[in-house]
């Protein structure tokens, strides 16, 4: 059974810092991995999707890497801003399971001005 | 282009009642998935519909059911509500094409409170 873990559960950093969020999964037979952002009481916004055959994806100040063999992904946020404060969630999908996503518990990020 | 639309945004129901939530996917998307989000359990998969057929189902009791219409809009129903059903219910849709390289798009959710 796939389990997804995110460490740390919460993180507080001063504005301008570069930071790394971690995601690990127990079953490496994933289809893809997605990183999402969730603001309080809101839905999820997709940030990056990494296919199982890829090593990393970049979008603006965000860079996500994937090491399928070790069951790990990291989300790197450069030059953090107060507007980055949110909960970040990673989720994996599997072959033959359609659109089903299995989520980690999330990392709650607070960027202080 | 309109995003995934969920209605209503907020609901308050009494224990024992039933409730129906609605989700309209992005135009052209045929896959719709439902998730329950609670502080204790996080995001948990309920079920997925594709072309009016349930393609996947999570580990929830039979009180939770869903359906999809020919226009891809989906509804989920919870019968005999319990206090523990209080949660944010999220709907996601996937565009056509390979699921390997297509991301899921989520709605804003329906906040259900059972009293």
Q: Would you mind describing this structure in some detail?
A:
The complex is a heterodimer of chains A (113) and B (115). With 113 residues, chain A is mainly beta. Chain A contains no helices and 11 strands. Chain A has strands at 4-7, 10-14, 19-25, 30-38, 44-51, 56-59, 62-67, 72-77, 86-94, 102-103, 107-112. In chain A, strands 2, 4, 5, 9, 10 and 11 form a 6-stranded mixed β-sheet that branches. Chain B contains no helices and 11 strands. In chain B, strand 4 and strand 5 form a beta hairpin. Chain B is globular and about 40 Å long. The interface between A and B is medium-sized, with 26 and 30 residues.
Name some characteristics of this structure:
heterodimer, A: 113 residues, mainly beta, six-stranded mixed β-sheet, 11 strands, B: 115 residues, seven-stranded mixed β-sheet, four-stranded antiparallel β-sheet, globular
Beta-strand residue percentage of chain A: over 45%
- Average residue pLDDT of chain A: 95
Helix content of chain B: under 10%
Helix content of chain A: under 10%
Write down the overall geometry of chain B.
globular
Count of DSSP strands of chain A? 11
Q: Determine the N-to-C terminus distance of chain A.
A: 41 Å
Distance between the termini of chain B: 37 Å
Q: Tell me the major beta sheet of chain A.
A: 6 strands, mixed
Number of helices of chain A: 0
Low-confidence stretches of chain B: none
Rg of chain A over CA atoms, rounded to whole Å, is: 14 Å
Shape of chain A: globular
Mean pLDDT of chain B: 94
Uncertain segments of chain A: none
Number of beta-strand segments of chain B: 11
Major sheet size, sense and barrel closure of chain B: 7 strands, mixed
- Report the oligomer: heterodimer
Instruction: Tell me the greatest interface.
Output: A-B, 26 and 30 residues
């Amino acid at each position: 059974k796939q389990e997804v873990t995110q460490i740390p559960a919460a993180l507080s950093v001063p504005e301008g810092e570069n930071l790394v969020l971690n995601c690990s999964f127990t079953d490496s037979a994933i289809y893809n991995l997605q990183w999402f952002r969730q603001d309080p009481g809101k839905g999820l916004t997709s940030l990056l999707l990494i296919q199982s055959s890829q090593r990393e994806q970049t979008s603006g100040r965000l860079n996500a890497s994937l090491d399928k063999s070790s069951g790990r992904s990291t989300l790197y946020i450069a030059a953090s801003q107060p507007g980055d404060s949110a909960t970040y969630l990673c989720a994996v999908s599997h072959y033959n399971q359609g659109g089903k996503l299995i989520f980690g518990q999330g990392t709650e990020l607070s960027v202080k001005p | 282009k309109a995003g995934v639309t969920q209605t209503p945004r907020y609901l308050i129901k009494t224990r024992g009642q039933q409730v129906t939530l609605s989700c309209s996917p992005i135009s052209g998307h045929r896959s719709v998935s439902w998730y329950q989000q609670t502080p204790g359990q996080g995001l948990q998969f309920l079920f997925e519909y594709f072309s009016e057929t349930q393609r996947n189902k999570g580990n929830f009791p039979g009180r939770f059911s869903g359906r999809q219409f020919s226009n891809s809009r989906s509804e989920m129903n919870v019968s005999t509500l319990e206090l523990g059903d209080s949660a944010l219910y999220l709907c996601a849709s996937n565009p056509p094409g390979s699921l390997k390289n297509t991301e899921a798009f989520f709605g804003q959710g329906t906040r259900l409170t059972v009293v």
